[in-house]
Amino acid sequence: MSEITEIPPRSGAAFRLAKGQVLQVIDPEGMQVSDLLAYAADDVREVISNGRTFDYEETISLTTGNVLWSNRSNPMLTIIEDSVGRHDFLLTPCSEATFRHFYKDKPVHRGCFGNLAEALAPYGVEPDAIPTAFNVFMNVPVDGASGKLEVLPPTTSPGDFLRLRAECDLVIGLTACSAYDSNGGSFRPIHYRIEG
Amino acid sequence: MSEITEIPPRSGAAFRLAKGQVLQVIDPEGMQVSDLLAYAADDVREVISNGRTFDYEETISLTTGNVLWSNRSNPMLTIIEDSVGRHDFLLTPCSEATFRHFYKDKPVHRGCFGNLAEALAPYGVEPDAIPTAFNVFMNVPVDGASGKLEVLPPTTSPGDFLRLRAECDLVIGLTACSAYDSNGGSFRPIHYRIEG
């Protein structure tokens, strides 16, 4: 079994994931969110796209068997195992601006956006090239009739996980989320492991 | 009253919209979709973002009073009048790849994606910088419980329209949609008018 890497609370990481390798994202203590981005390693202008994914998968609820597609309509990651079944692909990573907007009485934090921007910079990814992330474990119910959405705490228990297989050589960005609402105000670590 | 410009069936256009001007998008015959993109005129790396918009507006159903936000968390367009109340911000523009995916027995078309890429190229927008569009009049109901979505014909009648006010100087991309499902297989023109 490959070793586990910890992403400390309110921080982020970036790393390569080769085609065929499996990324396991683990919520070690429960109730934490991890924003995930994937770029094509050979040209980071190719990136996961929520719009292409919703179109091809014909759902906004993504779980085992679903594929995360790129802006160029290529498969990037396939979800091969999911102990939770509740993730979000609607919302962008929290940022200084979202802290100012939603948490006026709390200290501003650079958020997952700032953490991803710093971690991905060595791979040539500019901040403006950070799209809507695939928010692992994030619990965002949508009312189909009104369209209204809510951000609720994750339904995860300690040890819950998601496993995704790389369909091409990727650069991955991954965080332990920094926003209050997405994790119920608890700022916990995220664990990940690369298999294969 | 300013003059009307026609976007012919299965084509696209790009033009500047100054801060404070109002763009009226009209469905002259009914049952047609128009993919809309907006970029900051002084730096096209800033672009409308469905994720930021869903986050700040707290809904996926956008109508009068809602703002379309940029990837830098700035307001780009405010919807000031809407005779329809049903638009989509989940799905990416149809493209050669989506035609191959969804319409295997039909001729491949470059779609709204190709039309937008050509129209926006003179403004320095690369194809990879085309995100999920705001799909005016597009009818994409989502089942809140399952997450499943459908693409149904628009509910528009001839003359239905949407009016959006520019909150900064913009470059707009706009199409008359090329895909079969989004407009019930009728390929009709779109009209637009710039006020102010």
Mean pLDDT of chain A: 95
Shape of chain A: globular
Give the % helix of chain A. 10-25%
User: What's the gyration radius of chain A in Å?
Assistant: 15 Å
Q: Provide the β-strand percentage band of chain A.
A: 25-35%
| Strand order, sheet with most strands of chain A | 1-11-3-9-7-6
Total number of domains of chain A: 1
- Counting copies of identical and different chains, the oligomeric state is homodimer
Low-confidence stretches of chain A: none
Structural class of chain A: alpha+beta
Query: What is the chain-wise order of helices and strands of chain A?
Result: EEEEEHEEHHEEEE
Largest interface: A-B, 40 and 40 residues
Number of strands of chain A: 11
Organism (chains A, B): Altericroceibacterium endophyticum
Protein name (chains A, B): DUF1989 domain-containing protein
Pfam families (chains A, B): DUF1989
InterPro entries (chains A, B): DUF1989
Entry keywords:
homodimer; 196 residues; alpha+beta; 6-stranded antiparallel β-sheet; 5-stranded antiparallel β-sheet; 3 helices
Outline of this structure?
Chain A is α+β, with helices and mostly antiparallel strands and 196 residues long.
Could you describe the 3D structure shown?
The structure is a homodimer. By secondary structure, chain A is of the alpha+beta class. Chain A has one domain. Chain A is about 15% helix and about 30% strand. The first copy, chain A, contains three helices and eleven strands. Chain A has a six-stranded antiparallel beta sheet with strand order 1-11-3-9-7-6. In chain A, β4 and β5 form a beta hairpin. Chain A is globular and about 45 Å long. The N and C termini of chain A lie close together (about 10 Å). Chains A and B meet through α1 and α2 of A and α1 and α2 of B. Chains A, B: This is DUF1989 domain-containing protein. Chains A, B: It holds the Pfam family DUF1989.
